[in-house]
Specification:
By secondary structure, the chain is mostly helical. Helix content is 53%, strand content 0%. The longest helix has 19 residues.
């Protein structure tokens, strides 16, 4: 239609606010920064967390077998195949050099699967 003005173009949205400076990060006890362990960049923390998750899965999937193994002292034998599979997954994710140079997987087996006993 002649003489009609086009509709107004909306203004561009404002730029997002800048992220807070490191000095304003949340702090915990003694003024240390709070670090989410799932976001940690420390390879040792990641390896330890992965090992614990893999072994915790065994308890979740086989609670009766674990109870039997703890009761009868046959835990390593009863979980032989599952431990091998979990270790292969661990190797795939952390690498052979890291896996063989740290006790994280064995510690997870003893602390979690064996309930604190040194069976592995």
């Amino acid at each position: 239609m002649p003489g009609r003005t086009p509709p107004a173009v909306p203004a561009a949205p404002a730029a997002p606010a800048a992220a807070p400076a490191a000095s304003t990060a949340a702090t915990g006890a003694a003024g240390r920064p709070i670090v989410n362990p799932f976001l940690a960049r420390d390879p040792a923390a990641k390896g330890r967390r992965l090992a614990r998750a893999l072994i915790s899965d065994l308890i979740t999937y086989f609670p009766d077998r674990r109870a039997e193994g703890l009761r009868d002292g046959t835990l390593p034998t009863l979980f032989d195949e599952e431990i091998k599979k979990s270790y292969e997954e661990y190797l795939d994710q952390v690498g052979r050099e890291f896996a063989e140079s740290t006790p994280h997987f064995r510690d997870a087996l003893n602390e979690i699967l064996a309930g604190g006993q040194q069976l592995f």
